[in-house]
# Entry
Amino acid sequence: MFFVKFLEKKFTASLVFYLFLLPLSLMVITNKLLTIEPNKNKDNRIKHNKAKLLDKIDKKVINETKDIRIINPKNKEELSELLKQYENLELNEKNVLILIKICNIQFPEIVLKQAKLESGNFKSRMAKINNNLFGMKKPYSRETFATKKTKWGYSVYTNWVYSIGDYKLWQGFKTIETKNYFSYLKKRGYYTDPKYRKKLKSIKLKDR
# Structure
């Protein structure tokens, strides 16, 4: 009789132990299964995390307009890699100025005024359909981001950010040795309208 009671107590204790241990073991196994991923899924997760990080960087750059990182690409390839990061930016005055500065385009505020004038404040058909903010015509010799041209010869870009990039290619990667950018524009044949300078000076920029 004593032996039977002993076995019953031992069985009860073992049962309680295993009932406690079983859920704990299942939780550990489940967690391990959830954390184990094939290499492909892991690579996709890394790419996704990089994309999320890039989105955060973009938003940070857009929100902190007083602390813009100036990047100085040395050639078209570097410029292209830079522009790819900003293809999802909304087209507006603030973002255009930010990208102009990030690309280290010289005389940024005058260039912003050019973009506003040439694109009808970013609302013209050329700006919306052709992503051309500066009325640039497709060049015959210099490097360009234009993918094709209209029947009137104006450049067509896959995204408006490449219109900014094309302006940088037009300016070049060397320092422009002048304090009078209006004269520089005229000398290079950017405009022929005698009132062009006056029109640019009359454009008011939003507070930044």
The domain at 64-202 is CATH 1.10.530.10 (Lysozyme).
